[in-house]
Design a protein that fits this description.
By secondary structure, the protein is α+β, with helices and mostly antiparallel strands. The protein contains 11 helices and 16 strands. α5 runs antiparallel to α10. It is globular, with a radius of gyration of 21 Å.
């Protein structure tokens, strides 16, 4: 059956909402497919590439979107939906390829990423056929039809991976993830050594390198690790002081921009904080993109530095869980050993590696996704493709070293 692709228009919103309902039911946790205000903004403000598919009779049968934001040079493939009556004829792949070609054709993107459901193998095959490479697994990352694990994939513009800045050393618990990325992305990390323990390498060396390249200065000492991290100094603890959650999106955004006014001081693409988790004694403020509908929380920024949350992440996670998020993640530069050690020491597990994620001048910098979930992880219902199996092995290895005593593992 002939299907024509065309840009989404405001008058398509009602049909698009019906399409997402028919594909996902009431369980679709993204406003793009359910909130007409958000949909209108994406269609009209120039930050999204949105293609629809219509059958020869005029019925809307497919949709795919690449959302972007000014300055980050990163897009995200979202909202891929094909009507159940039109599956099996390659429409999902055609939509994916077309919307990505349109997005990269602007010359303003270095990469486009996608978080893909793994309840079936089909979505993984679609992105792989369109040039996406596997970057890792995000266990329990979203509430869709129950708690689901997502896979992270990315597609790159030509030449981007060739401009990566080398990283000399990383915490040893990241070694398995780097090995998986060497296979999945085709990057040689043989020159990056794993160092055991927080004090085995200079804690601020990698962070300083990223900070110097970005030209970030000022009171925050930001590197863009979790949006604003990386200042050197003594790791502090807050003990058992309570964590206060302020969920006031307008206030949080204003406060966030006051603390991190320079674009180089914050880096967590396509995430805007809507809540702040603050220590009662004022020792830190952690900015979060909290989504109780999806059951997830992205820790976007920490002020004044990531080491300020050392000793408080258990309380922070308890607060996030009470707010409805069973999954939390943060994004850190691979070179920022200090920040990585803080989160690894607090139960966060390296889940995905995003090579060449951030452009600073003429070099590309690698980032790591670390995650933590308060629910039991069950991989029995996931369809992990061969391309993702090295990442599954890396995650299980890192989780084991984090949560199982060595004497238990050796039995």
């Amino acid at each position: 059956m002939t299907v024509a692709l065309s840009p989404a228009r405001v008058r398509d919103i009602a049909e698009l909402r019906q399409l997402y309902f028919e594909v996902y039911g009431h369980g679709y946790p993204v406003p793009l497919g359910s909130d007409p205000v958000v949909m209108r903004r994406l269609i009209t403000d120039g930050t999204a590439h949105w293609l629809t598919a219509r059958a020869c009779g005029g019925a809307l049968v497919g949709s795919a979107v690449v959302v972007t934001e000014p300055g980050s040079r990163i897009g995200k493939l979202v909202g891929l939906a094909v009507h159940p009556g039109h599956r099996g004829d390659g429409l999902a792949s055609r939509l994916t390829g077309a919307v990505c070609e349109e997005a990269f054709g602007t010359g303003r993107l270095d990469s486009v990423y996608a978080t893909v459901r793994v309840v079936t193998a089909g979505p993984q095959a679609v992105v792989v056929r369109n040039g996406f490479r596997p970057l890792g697994l995000l266990p329990n990352a979203v509430e869709v039809d129950g708690c689901e694990t997502l896979a992270l994939f990315a597609r790159y513009a030509d030449g981007v991976l060739d401009r990566r800045a080398p990283v000399a050393a990383v915490p040893e618990r990241l070694s398995a993830l780097l090995s998986a990325a060497s296979t999945g992305v085709g990057i040689d990390y043989a020159g990056t050594r794993g160092v055991p323990g927080r004090n085995a390498a200079s804690p601020a060396g990698g962070a300083a390198a990223v900070r110097e390249a970005a030209g970030t200065t000022g009171a925050t000492g930001a590197t863009g690790a979790t949006g604003a991290t990386g200042a050197t100094g003594t790791t502090g603890t807050t003990g058992a002081e309570p964590i206060e959650l302020i969920a006031a999106p307008g206030f949080v955004r204003r406060r966030f921009l006051e603390l991190f006014p320079q674009a180089g001081d914050r880096f967590f693409p396509l995430h805007t904080p809507n809540a702040v988790l603050a220590a009662a004694d004022g020792s830190f403020e952690a900015y979060a993109d909290l989504d109780p509908v999806a059951g997830s929380c992205a820790l976007v920024a920490v002020h004044p530095r990531p080491s300020a949350v050392a000793g408080a992440l258990e309380g922070l996670m308890a607060t996030v869980t009470r707010a409805g998020a069973d999954y939390a993640e943060t994004l850190l530069p691979l070179a920022d050993t200090e920040a990585l050690e803080v989160f690894l020491a607090s139960g966060f597990v390296p889940s995905a590696l995003y090579p060449a994620m951030r452009r600073i001048q003429d070099r590309m910098h690698d980032y790591v996704v670390l995650s933590r979930t308060s629910r039991q992880i069950d991989f029995r219902t996931t369809a992990v493709s061969p391309l993702l199996r090295p990442y599954l092995g890396a995650y299980l290895s890192a989780w084991t070293s984090t949560y199982l005593p060595l004497h238990e593992v050796s039995r």
